[in-house]
Specification:
By secondary structure, the protein is an alpha+beta fold. It has seven helices and six strands, in the order αβαβαβαββαβαα. 35% of the residues lie in helices and 22% in strands. A six-stranded mixed beta sheet has the order 5-4-3-2-1-6, sandwiched between helices. The C terminus is likely disordered.
């Protein structure tokens, strides 16, 4: 169960996602400290993955960004880390980034938007997305949509071991 202080924010993010994505909306999932019951108000960020049916147009991506930025929808903690995937990418079980949109913003977090994987600096690491989807498969908290274990595929163990060695 999410922290009571962030529940209204999660509901607002979900409402925006449903309004902007319309029939493309598949689901919304909390990851990180919220999903692992380790959330610390004021210190933790809010990690959310949204799923859509098909690739998003640039206009839809920009509308999501505009409506979810901290200045439009104030984040009650460190910041929002949002990633949007198609359902097919979420179920791919690959390490490829494959995201539709990445948005980071908040009172204690620098604004960053990536409308496609090529927009993200390679130096920041591209392997995080596959690992993130694998973690969502294992422990994602459903805000809306099918169970996380069905919506996200786990990475094959050989891929997880390869990428974990990069953390050291």
């Amino acid at each position: 169960m999410p922290d009571l202080d962030v529940e209204p924010y999660l509901e607002a993010v979900l409402e925006v996602a449903r309004e902007v994505l319309g029939t493309e909306f598949v689901g919304a999932y909390a990851a990180g400290s919220l999903a692992l019951n380790a959330f610390q108000p004021g210190r933790s960020d809010i990690d959310i993955a949204l799923l859509c049916r098909d690739p998003l147009s640039e206009a839809v991506k920009r509308e999501l960004i505009a409506r979810l930025r901290h200045r439009a929808l104030p984040c009650p903690t460190r910041g929002l880390e949002l990633v949007v995937y198609t359902a097919a990418t979420a179920q791919s079980g690959t390490a490829k980034p494959g995201f539709e949109l990445e948005l980071n913003d908040g009172p204690a977090m620098a604004f960053r938007q990536s409308l496609q994987p090529a927009d993200r600096p390679v130096a920041d690491g591209m392997f995080w997305y596959g690992l993130g989807r694998s973690i969502l498969h294992q422990s994602g908290l459903v805000l809306a949509g099918p169970p996380a274990s069905e919506a996200f595929a786990d990475l094959p163990i050989s891929v997880r071991v390869l990428h974990r060695s990069r953390w050291r």
